[in-house]
Design a protein that fits this description.
alpha/beta; binds adenosine-5'-triphosphate; four-stranded antiparallel beta sheet; 7 helices; homodimer; binds magnesium ion
Chain lengths: ~220, ~220
C-alpha cells in the first residue's frame, strides 16, 4: 500500500543544510503493522508527514495504493488526508477553543458522514474520556489531549493509520488500552504505521523499521 | 524543603466539578530525588504547577523552605520561580519566534546573571543540541524541543528541579543522557521531583509517590 523510493527532504536554516530524510526506501503491504524507531531527530516525524500527504518531499518517489502522490492536486490530497488516512500528531494539533467532542467529530464532518456526533462520543468512550467530552484542550491533562488526538485519527475508520508517538504521555495501563484499539483496527485489515520509543508498542508490531540520520538502518521486512 | 498539607484544587467545567487534587500531603527533604507516578489525569501536572508556584491551590497548605507560599506576593513568587526553581513543562512552553539559544538563556537574563549566552550554549551542548542552537521551536523535532525545555530548566542551577514528564518524547539513549544530567545536578545536593511514566526514570529516584484521582495512594518515603 505504501512504496517509498529514495525519499529526500532537506531543510535550510541560516547557512546550514539539514538532510532530514537522506534517501529512505521501503514498501509496506496492506494490513501490515509497522513500528518506526530511531533516536530523537532521526527523521521519523518528517517521514510520517510525507506518508500522510501533509508535507512535500524534495526527491524520490512515494506511491500510495499505486498512485504517484507527486502527481496529485491539492483537492485530491485533501480527500486522501480526510478520508483514507488517520493521523495522530506528535504534538496533537487539537483546535483550541473547541471541545474534545467537536475536535473528534471534525474528520467525519469534512467527509460528509452522518452521525458524526454519536460516533465521536463513542470514540471518546473507547479512549476512556467519556467524562471529558465537553472539555477544551486547555482543560485536559497531557495524556487526555493525546487520547483525543488518537480518537480523532480513528473515527473515520481509516484504511491507513499513521500514529506519531501516540502513547508518550500515557501510563502503562492507558497505553495498553490505546494499543488494544490499534489492534482492533488492525484486525479488520487496516494498515498501521506507528512511530514509537516504547518497547511495549514496538512489541505489538510484526515489522520494524529503524531510522538514523534520515536513513533506514534496519528493516525487518525488507526482502 | 517541600511540605504539602491536604492540598486541594478544583476545576469547574459547565455543571461539573473536578477534584484534580483531593487532599494531597507529603514532605520532601532537601536533596531527595522523587518520582511522581499515576495514571493519565490523576493530578500530577496540577500538583507540579502548585509546587512550582505557577498555580494557586484552593485549600490546604504549601510550605517551601519553611515559607508559607500562600502568604507571598506576586513579586516574591516571580523571584522564586525564576531563581530557585527550574521547571520542565509537559508541553515545553517554548517561545515560538525565538531560537533555542535565546529560549534557554531567558531565566539567566531574568535573574540578571552574566554570561547568559555562553551558559546557554553550554547547556544546549550538554543535551546534545549544539548543532541546533539557532533553530526555532518549529524547526526542531519533538524530542529536541523537549531537550531545549530541559536545558532551560537546568541553566539557572536551581535548588529545586521540577520536571513534568521530561523524557516522554525521547528514545532510550537520549533519555539516559538527560537522566545523567539530572543525576549530576542531584549529586550537588539539589532537590529533584520528576513526574514520569517510564520505569527507567522512576528507577533512578530513591523515593516514589503515586497519585490516583487527586490523592496519594502510595508513598515510599512516608513515615
Ligand atoms: N483547566 C482545567 N479545567 C478543567 N479540568 C482540568 C483542567 N486542567 C486539568 N483538568 C483535569 O484535572 C485532572 C488532572 O489533570 P492533570 O493535568 O494534573 O493530570 P496528569 O496526572 O498530569 O495527567 P497526564 O499523565 O495525562 O499528564 C484531569 O482529569 C483533567 O481533565
Ligand atoms: N522546519 C524545520 N527546519 C529545520 N530543521 C528541521 C525542521 N523540522 C525538522 N528539522 C530537523 O530535521 C531533523 C528530523 O526531524 P524529525 O522531526 O523528523 O525528527 P524525529 O525523528 O521525529 O525526532 P523526535 O523523536 O525527537 O520526535 C531534526 O534534526 C530536526 O532538527
Ligand atoms: Mg518526532
Ligand atoms: Mg500531566
Amino acid at each position: 500500500v505504501i512504496t517509498a523510493r529514495d525519499l529526500r527532504r532537506t531543510y535550510h536554516v541560516g547557512d546550514s543544510t539539514i538532510n532530514a530524510l537522506d534517501g529512505v526506501s521501503f514498501s509496506i503491504k496492506p494490513g501490515e503493522m509497522t513500528a518506526i524507531l530511531g533516536s530523537s531527530g532521526s527523521g521519523k516525524s518528517t517521514l510520517m508527514h510525507i506518508l500522510g500527504c501533509l508535507d512535500r518531499f524534495d526527491a524520490g518517489e512515494y506511491l500510495l495504493d499505486g498512485v504517484n502522490v507527486a502527481t496529485l492536486g491539492e483537492d485530491e490530497l485533501a480527500r486522501i488526508r480526510n478520508v483514507k488516512i488517520g493521523f495522530v500528531f506528535q504534538t496533537f494539533n487539537l483546535l483550541p477553543r473547541t471541545s474534545a467532542l467537536e475536535n473528534v467529530e471534525l474528520p467525519l464532518l469534512y467527509a460528509g458522514r452522518r452521525q458524526a456526533r454519536e460516533r465521536a462520543a463513542e470514540m471518546l468512550r473507547l479512549v476512556g474520556l467519556e467524562s471529558r467530552m465537553d472539555h477544551e484542550p486547555s482543560q485536559l491533562s497531557g495524556g487526555q489531549r493525546q487520547r483525543v488526538a488518537v480518537a480523532r485519527a480513528l473515527i473515520g475508520d481509516p484504511a491507513l493509520l499513521l500514529a506519531d508517538e501516540p502513547t508518550g504521555n500515557l501510563d502503562t495501563k492507558t497505553t495498553d488500552e490505546i494499543l488494544g484499539l490499534f489492534r482492533t483496527l488492525h484486525e479488520t485489515g487496516r494498515t498501521i504505521v506507528v512511530v514509537t520509543h516504547e518497547p511495549e508498542v514496538a512489541a505489538v508490531c510484526a515489522r520494524r523499521i529503524v531510522l538514523r540520520d534520515g536513513r533506514v538502518i534496519e528493516d525487518s521486512g525488507s526482502p
